[in-house]
Write a structure and sequence with these properties.
It is a single chain. The chain is mostly beta strands. The chain has three domains: 142 residues, Immunoglobulin-like (Sandwich), CATH 2.60.40; 130 residues, Sandwich (Immunoglobulin-like), CATH 2.60.40.2950; 115 residues, no CATH class. It is 14% helix and 40% strand. Helix 1 packs parallel to helix 2, helix 2 crosses helix 3 and helix 3 packs antiparallel against helix 4. The chain is elongated. It starts with 30 loop residues before the first strand and ends in an 11-residue tail after the last helix. The N terminus is likely disordered.
């Protein structure tokens, strides 16, 4: 019985609120699903699957790899009595930082519980240790009856033979059944949807023919109706069916498995979505060349050397990857980091423009990259400088490496140039910076 994001509740949670200059506090984006099967003793085996896209996690570089950490806690209660409390810490490692931006890769885990035939409440909580983003969910669950004839229908993205220890929790009879808690299948990556369920047959009916009907609808229109005769020889038998995706349109599908045994019909439903990936291009400026100039502020050493030879599509894709990287490194959503930088660009254009837009000036570059300084001190150079007295500003930042910058209006046109920088590996000081300020300049002003 999948918790459907279509019919019941969206489990893909998005950004709630962000304050300027403060790391984004988001709900953790993840997917949760459960399915119920009968054990040999006729208790309910509850399989709780959860899937966390890499893009929603914060990875930290360590030991030549990148790691995220998620604390998960599950509590199952019956009325006022707690039946299970289970806590796990998921240590998630990736070898390439680019995997953290993948639209396809995700962490998958399963927790299992054994329940007697009663009604329960499930409480689930997950917290990303690095970002403090969290996800919580509560749901009422009924155990299966001991005389149930069919289990829940489990949706899988792939079923394949595997004898290794990888994904051990998802192995059945030497095959890996890779569940899909998100219930979203992208046709570019999957040829089929695989459904798994179990039939439970009373001893008196073993060897008798039963009829299974697999039905699939889209927008209340029947698109698949398959009849399957089955003879069960064991009291519990697994069934796996394959649904080809090639001829199915993108959209929402409602499926059902009907078991006709004698005069009774038992039906189990399931849902899934077929999506066709649309590449969303991210940008702040309409002109890619402006965006290239902005990217230099943040990652000059990582920019492609063949930028001028790239076509516009390749440039747009590189720009998109830049913003995705920025989102991961700051813990913000892609749109939020774009909005934040846009606000800083607007500020610099308003206050630092002279003969050119404020965002392209030295002050603009530092403000866009670091935000507003913690302290600004203004003054004028003395007569002992190499020029007539000119105005300067000292910017100090109290966070990070406690950077200090000195800007001077050398041409006296409000285009302050950076002449001194400390605590910032991306900036260099003018070798003759002190001669601009004068020999009698009080260098203690640069302490931070």
């Amino acid at each position: 019985m999948s918790i459907s994001i279509i019919k019941k509740l969206s489990l893909s949670l998005i950004l709630l609120t962000i304050c300027l200059g403060i790391a984004a506090q988001e709900l953790l984006h993840m997917h949760l699903d459960y399915n119920r099967f009968l054990s040999e003793e006729k208790d309910t085996a509850l399989l709780l699957d959860y899937q966390i896209p890499y893009r929603s996690l914060i990875f930290v570089a360590k030991n030549n790899a990148y790691f995220a950490e998620v604390d998960v806690e599950v509590q199952i209660s019956n009325r006022d009595s707690v039946v299970y409390t289970q806590s796990v810490t998921d240590n998630i490692g990736i070898s390439s930082k680019h995997d953290a931006l993948s639209t396809q890769k995700a962490y998958l885990n399963r927790m299992s519980f054994l329940l007697e035939p009663q009604s329960y409440n499930l409480s689930f909580k997950a917290v990303d240790v690095n970002s403090k983003k969290s996800f919580t969910f509560n749901y009422d669950i009924d155990a299966l009856d001991r005389d149930a004839r069919i289990s829940d229908v489990e949706l899988n993205s792939r079923v394949y033979a595997d004898s290794s220890q990888y994904l051990q929790k998802f192995r059945r009879n030497g095959k890996i059944f890779e569940p899909l808690p998100s219930i979203i299948l992208q046709r570019e990556y999957f040829e089929n949807a695989h459904i798994y369920f179990e039939l439970y047959t009373p001893e008196a009916e073993l060897g008798m023919s039963q009829l299974l009907v697999l039905s699939l609808e889209q927008n209340a229109e029947l698109v698949m109706d398959e009849y399957i005769d089955i003879v069960t020889l064991n009291s519990s038998e697994a069934v796996t069916l394959k649904i080809p995706l090639a001829d199915l349109k993108a959209g929402i599908y409602e499926g059902s498995i009907s078991l006709q045994a004698g005069e009774s019909t038992i039906e189990k439903s399931f849902d899934f979505v077929i999506s066709e990936e649309v590449e969303v291009m991210l940008s702040l400026f309409p002109n890619p060349e402006d965006e290239y100039g902005l990217m230099r502020y943040f990652m000059a050493s990582s920019l492609p050397s063949n930028w001028d030879a790239m076509n516009e599509e390749a440039k747009r894709r590189h720009i998109t990857n830049f913003w995705k990287t920025m989102a991961v490194s700051t813990g913000m959503s892609e749109q939020r980091i774009i909005d934040l930088v846009h606000e800083r660009v607007e500020h610099t254009n308003k206050y630092y423009s002279s003969l050119k837009p404020g965002w392209t000036t030295d002050m603009g570059r530092i403000f866009i990259r670091n935000g507003a300084p913690s302290d600004i001190e203004k003054g004028s150079s003395s007569d002992q400088s190499r020029f007539v007295g000119k105005e300067y500003q000292i910017w100090k930042y109290s966070s990070g490496n406690r950077a200090v910058y000195v800007f001077m209006d050398i041409q006296m046109n409000n285009n302050y140039r950076l002449i001194y920088a400390s605590g910032d590996d991306m900036e260099v000081s003018n070798p003759g910076w002190l001669s601009y300020l004068g020999r009698d300049f009080d260098t203690s002003l640069l302490r931070n």
